[in-house]
Structure formats: C-alpha cells, structure tokens
Design goal:
Elements lengths: L22 H4 L2 E11 L4 E14 L2 E10 L4 E12 L2 E5 L3 E10 L2 E12 L2 E13 L4 E10 L2 E12 L2
Antiparallel strand pairs: 1-2, 1-10, 2-3, 3-4, 4-5, 5-6, 6-7, 7-8, 8-9, 9-10
C-alpha cells in the first residue's frame, strides 16, 4: 500500500540515524503518553493521556491502549501487530479500516492507515500519515498527520515514555 505523502518525506531518509528504533523492544511493557490534537489552523482542540501495555511473542505483538481525552471521553484500543519483514510491520485494531502498514529505518517508523474517528457526533474515515521517532531507549515522539480527500484536517503530537 503506498504511503500518503503529505510530508514528502521518505522513511529511507532516516537510514543510519540513531538511536535505532526497535518497536518490538520499545512496545514491550508499560508506557505512558501525553498528547495534543490540533486542527488545520494549529488550534489545540483536544488533549489526551494514554496508558499502554505491550507484549510480543516472536513476530506477533499486542499493544493495548487506554486513551483518556481532555473532554472526559475514554477510549480503549487493542492493536494486533505483526513483523512481516526486517523493517516492515502491519497492524489491525478496532476503528482501523483494513490494515495499518509500517516501515522502519534508523530512529523512525512510518505507519499509514485509515481510521474511523468521531467528530461532533458523526464518524469520519481519515487517513493517517503516522511518524514515530526514538529519542532514546525509553522515550519516543509520535507525529501524526490526518487527511481527508488529500487535505490536512488535523495533526497529533504524542510523547511516549516507558515506565518499566
């Protein structure tokens, strides 16, 4: 599946960057995350705190998330992840349309997927161009760019820290 190229960046541009991101290692154990969601004008429209728990059995992983939004809404999501090649992954979760595809290189991984999200009492299918960057063994920065019909509708910034 081709990646939505909102940034005009390619994962290969991160070859050789450090620290090398090993998502099987990073997404094992407990994590906490904090984030903001900004509309296309840059206005923060939502905050989120996330508790995560990840486990891997060989090339198969599960990442469980409990998202606590600033408006009081709580959402649970369970990602089923699979390493499909040396630097390639796929994942499924409730709300994901089809399969999420990920490719890593150096300190980065890029995911591409379509997700159904609630907005103002309605459901919308939105394309995610999702970038994760290792800062060190215990901290990751996640930047997601959401689009609809090729137009940016929102950005998400999340900071993830391992707690074990």
């Amino acid at each position: 599946m081709p990646f939505n190229n909102l940034l005009r960046a390619d994962i290969s541009e991160y070859a050789g960057t450090k620290p090398v991101l090993d998502i099987q290692h990073f997404f094992t154990g407990s994590m906490k995350a904090w984030g903001i969601i900004q509309n296309r004008r840059g206005l923060i429209v939502q905050t989120v705190k996330i508790d995560m728990l990840g486990e891997w059995n060989g090339d198969d992983g599960i990442l469980s998330e409990v998202l606590n939004y600033g408006d009081g809404r709580i959402e649970k999501r369970r990602w089923n992840l699979k390493k499909t090649a040396a630097q390639c992954f796929k994942g499924t979760a409730e709300g994901i349309i089809g399969t999420a595809f990920g490719e890593s290189n150096g300190n980065a991984i890029r995911w591409n997927y379509v997700m159904t999200i609630p907005v103002g009492g309605k459901q919308y299918n939105v394309t995610f161009d999702d970038w994760m960057f290792a800062m060190d063994d215990d901290v990751m920065v996640n930047r997601s760019y959401m689009s609809k019909f090729g137009f940016k509708v929102a950005e998400i910034s999340i900071f993830i820290q391992k707690t074990v």
